[in-house]
Write a structure and sequence with these properties.
The protein is α+β, with helices and mostly antiparallel strands. The protein contains 19 helices and 17 strands. It folds into 4 domains: 285 residues, Zn peptidases (Aminopeptidase, 3-Layer(aba) Sandwich), CATH 3.40.630.10; 249 residues, no CATH class; 82 residues, no CATH class; 49 residues, no CATH class. The strands form 5 sheets. The chain has a 7-stranded mixed beta sheet with strand order 1-4-6-5-7-9-8, sandwiched between helices. Helix 14 runs antiparallel to helix 16. It is found in: Endoplasmic reticulum membrane.
């Protein structure tokens, strides 16, 4: 027996070691994919690096995977080079035309074939001047490894899995449109998973699902080993607050296909910069993403629901992860019922206090109204105070002081908000509520918070927003806690016991709100470094910190009235605020960092351009050449001038109001976000292949229309933006290249 037990232990050890070795080899292979793709360099659409080198590398790896695949599967590969156009309402709306872009498409299916398919999408192109490791080479690396894993498995698939490596996403979603509207395999797709990035590594967040199709969220709940998802992120992203979009929109709007959108969100400071390199993406992040996506694809490729996905298109779903441990998901209609039930219980709780003898009821209503007024006054005065500080910081040129030092924003705006809230209620307690019963005041202000959150719950539910679950949580847990501590609250001398039970009951909602708040901070703060010159980031962040402070303090206002004194708290908060304000005004906190381990660079966009302005008759009106400079954040180039004196406000240029996009060759119509431009005169550009673009003919047609004929001969990467004046409409066009 001992020998047998020892042999069994050795066998188990060897099996575990083998599994560990296989896992390590897969991780090495996945990282090798990532490093080889990024070694090509920046992969802009139309460049040899994107259209030839990366495509050839992908084809070689796919060929190697195919040679080792199981007999249970069949692999088909197709190179698509679509040409087409589409209109999109992103960034104010425009029509996009593309020609001969590249898609590498792989279909993994059972030997006998499959009628239906699930799509996995990544893009291998990048913006200029970045290796694009996170956006989106890492996703393509993960997809290659998933293809490798699935193809070697002897377990048969019920449906096909289509892997789309698309080569033109950064040109605003062109390759995905070319695939879903023109490829012969597109008609078989019943669901998709889109892999994106808004940061470098970390956890991948599910921030869009559907439309509708709650079964897809349930599939994620069942199959994802490391869940990280939030319907709040979905509703924030789809509101348009974040000026970004993904291929999800194309598959949803042009393919009428439901799907799931995932993106890395950590460390967005170096997103779309030269620092987006493979060494900054942890192996754990890649493994985590691979586990989740592999689990999802295996689940969908063997699910009976995939074939009938349109039959399960019924309503939205509320979903959110609980501290990354698991996901709670339920139909939105169930959430609506729960929200109204919670509101009904609140009405019963407050109604019991109103349905008292007449004098007591009137007195309670009066006290509740006064307390509500003081609460609104505290919120309004805090808002005014914090915004005054934020505007002042912006006006003196010290905005973004917290960009490289997050704690500064808390010490500056968080302390100001907390101090003002406490001050208003302390003054109310001292002058208006003098000699009032402290327990009664504490209960009254608790009821005010409960009433406010109940009203918010009803309003947000009526708007059809799934994020109403936060309000539901913020009503249900405090109310339940209050009911459990009612006797302790009324008993004198039981204050410590009451506080302990109260804090314990509020622990879960407070912990979740802080978890959600941190996730939002992690997404939004890096975005402030690339949000344009017109949006004051300090005002935005101050408003967000104020909102967080109001939410987190709402059920602790009653403790101000229960406490004997708030003097020490106010002095401490005021001192921290004052010291931080002085340090910020003196410029101690430089916004950016060149730390090689954790860079937080300032984004400056420089383009050497030659401009020619023509009149309506085709005559040359003006021409010049120069370095066109954009500071992508609110600070403009103020931090650069001390180091490069030539770049100063004397070269700032005004918008050419009569010219399209202010007279600058914007790649995208984002001029309304970047109204501040600097233009340094420079020698004319001498490209290796001269640009030839000429108006050949102008012909008056019927129905008050004009036909313009142009001739162009340019490099592979050519962008033509047609922006007619308000009284003119483009009705049709035809494209023929002269070379």
């Amino acid at each position: 027996m001992p020998e047998a037990r020892g042999a069994l232990l050795v066998l188990l050890y060897l099996l575990a070691l083998r599994a560990l070795v296989q896992l390590s080899l897969r991780q090495l292979l996945r990282r090798e994919y990532l490093e080889n793709i990024t070694a090509v360099g920046p992969r802009t659409v139309g460049s040899p690096e994107n259209e030839i080198l990366t495509v050839n590398y992908l084809l070689r790896q796919i060929k190697a995977i195919e040679s080792e695949s199981s007999d249970a599967h069949k692999i088909s590969v197709d190179i698509q080079r679509p040409t087409g156009s589409f209109s999109i309402d992103f960034l104010g709306g425009f029509t996009s035309y593309y020609a001969n872009i590249t898609n590498v498409v792989v279909k993994l299916e059972p030997k006998s074939g499959a009628k239906h398919a699930v799509l996995s999408n990544c893009h291998f192109d990048s913006v200029p001047n970045t290796p694009g490791a996170s956006d989106d080479a890492v996703s393509c690396s993960v997809m290659l490894e998933i293809l490798n894993t699935l193809s070697k498995s002897s377990d048969p698939l019920q449906h096909a899995v289509i892997f789309l490596f698309n080569g033109a996403e950064e040109n605003i979603l062109q390759a995905s449109h070319g695939f879903i509207t023109q490829h012969r395999w597109a008609e078989s797709i019943r669901a998709f998973i889109n892999l994106e990035a808004a940061g470098v590594g970390g956890k991948e967040l599910v921030f869009q699902t559907g439309p509708e199709n709650p079964w897809l969220v349930q599939a994620y709940v069942f199959a994802a080993k490391h869940p990280f998802a939030s319907v709040v992120a979905q509703e924030v992203f789809q509101s348009g607050i974040i000026p970004a979009d993904t291929d999800f929109r194309i598959y949803r709007d042009f393919g009428n296909i439901p799907g799931i959108d995932l993106a890395f969100i950590e460390n967005g400071y170096i997103y779309h910069t030269k620092y987006d390199t493979p060494d900054r993406i942890l192996t754990d992040s890649i493994q985590r993403a691979g586990d989740n996506i592999l689990g999802m694809l295996k689940y969908l490729a063997t699910s009976d629901k995939l074939a009938k996905s349109f039959d399960y298109r019924h309503g939205n779903v509320v979903f959110f992860d609980v501290f990354g441990l698991f996901v709670l998901a339920y139909p939105a209609r169930v959430g609506t019922i729960m929200n109204y039930m919670i509101t009904a219980v609140t009405v019963l709780y407050l109604g019991k206090k109103i349905l008292q003898p007449r004098n007591r009821a009137i007195n309670y209503m009066k006290e509740l109204s006064v307390a509500f007024g003081f609460t609104l006054l505290s919120w309004f005065s805090t808002l005014v105070t914090v915004l005054i500080v934020a505007v002042f910081i912006s006006l003196i040129g010290q905005s973004l002081s917290w960009y490289n030092h997050f704690y500064v924003s808390i010490f500056l705006y968080g302390t100001a908000a907390a101090a003002k809230l406490i001050l208003v209620h302390t003054l109310a307690k001292k002058f208006y509520y003098k000699n009032r019963n402290e327990q009664y005041l504490g209960e009254t202000f608790f009821d005010v918070s409960l009433l406010v959150w109940s009203v918010a719950l009803v309003l947000i539910t009526q708007l059809g927003l799934c994020s109403a679950f936060i309000c539901a949580m913020w009503v249900a847990f405090p109310l339940l806690t209050k009911l459990l501590t009612y006797r302790e609250f009324k008993q004198k001398g039981a204050t410590i016991r009451f506080v302990m039970i109260y804090m314990l009951g509020m622990f879960i909602p407070y912990l979740y709100i802080m978890y959600l708040t941190w996730t939002i901070f992690e997404m939004f703060i890096p975005i402030m470094g690339r949000s344009g010159t017109e949006i004051p980031p300090d005002v935005v962040l101050a408003a967000f910190i104020l909102s967080s402070t109001v939410i987190l303090s709402s059920y602790f206002l009653n403790f101000i009235y229960l406490a004997k004194s708030t003097k020490k708290t106010l002095i401490t908060l005021t001192a921290v605020f004052g010291v931080t304000l002085i340090l910020v005004c003196s410029g101690v906190f430089f916004p950016y960092s060149s730390d090689s381990a954790n860079p937080k660079p300032k984004r400056v966009f420089l383009q050497h351009v030659s401009r020619r302005f023509y009149g309506l008759n085709g005559n040359l009106v003006k021409s010049d050449s120069g370095i066109w400079i954009n500071g992508l954040d609110y600070a403009g180039i103020s931090h650069i001038t001390p180091h490069i004196p030539e770049l100063n406000d004397t070269i700032r240029t005004n918008c050419e109001d009569k010219a399209p996009l202010c007279g600058f060759p914007w790649i995208l119509p984002v001029h309304f976000l970047l109204r501040k431009n600097w233009y340094l005169p420079a020698a004319e550009i001498s490209p290796t292949k001269p640009v030839h673009f000429k108006l050949l003919a102008k012909e008056q047609m019927s129905w008050d229309s004009t036909k313009l004929t142009f001739e162009k001969c340019v490099s592979l990467h050519f962008l033509l933006l047609i922006n007619p004046v308000h009284t003119v409409q483009v009705v049709s066009w035809r494209w023929n290249s002269c070379c």
